Amino acid sequence: MGKKEIVLAIPDLHAPYHNARAIPFIQYCIKQFNPTKIVCLGDEVDQHGLSTFPKETALYSPGHEYEAAMEFMQKLYKVIPEAQVCESNHTARPYRIAKAAGLPSVYLKAYKEIMQSPPGWSWHDRIEIDGVVYEHGENCGSGRNAAFTAAFQNRKSTVIGHIHSFGGVQYSANHYNQIFWANAGCLIDPESLAFAYGNKYRNKSTLGAVVVDSGRGAHFVRLDF
Predict the structure, then answer these.
(1) Which of 51, 139, 159, 175 is the 20 to 30 A CA-CA neighbour of 101?
(2) CA atoms of 173 and 48, how far apart (whole Å)
(3) Cβ atoms of 9 and 35 closer than 8 Å
(4) Tens digits of residue pLDDT in 53-100
(5) Rounded CA separation 85/213 (Å)
(6) SS3 call for 152
């Protein structure tokens, strides 16, 4: 029987509009749970300046935002030299803009080059470890049931980010197996103007991450310091 992994699943950071406690919290999780693999669930950068939605003019220009985001990512790479990353809607913004403009992919940089990442980082549409699927979650609907929708469609235990307002794990079993689905919350700065669109919603950002043990169970770790 092969080695079973302990996976730390880190949700949306949206650098440079990340939570000021994000890196200390990630360091705490690494020390507390000793993960054998780390998965970033996507939206590691925000790229607000490249959004097709109305922009907050008081925020960074696209160039300055990229520089600030990379400054944060370099700090994160020192803490996490190896990670598998889920491709996601915010990180993919440059590619969507290029596609809309008709620019062939041959002219575009790869994620690793754009993100100035170390060799141990890699980007994937989805990731599977010990039978658990990790994906960003933008195609799973919205709200607390998005992770359930993803698990139902995958027919496997599933962990997602993307849904900032919910964090937690639920299980379901039948005669044949048991699966779980987990919303990992986020690690953003809820006070940033980048998330001003959320002011009208009653559900606010749930800060934390998910730890998965050997593919059999998971729990949500709340950022509470």
Answers:
(1) 139
(2) 41
(3) no
(4) 888 999 999 999 999 999 999 999 999 999 999 999 999 999 999 999
(5) 19
(6) helix
Tell me if residue 37 falls in helix, strand or coil: strand
Contacts of 92 (CB under 8 A, 6+ apart): none
CA–CA separation, 137 and 149 (whole Å): 9
- The full set of domains in the chain, from first to last, is 6-222 (3.60.21)
Distance CA 20, CA 61 (A): 21
| Under 8 Å between Cβ of 145 and 121 | no
- For the question of whether the overall pTM of this predicted structure is more than 0.90, the answer is yes
190 token code pair? 């809820």
Cβ neighbours of residue 202 closer than 8 Å, sequence gap 6 or more: none
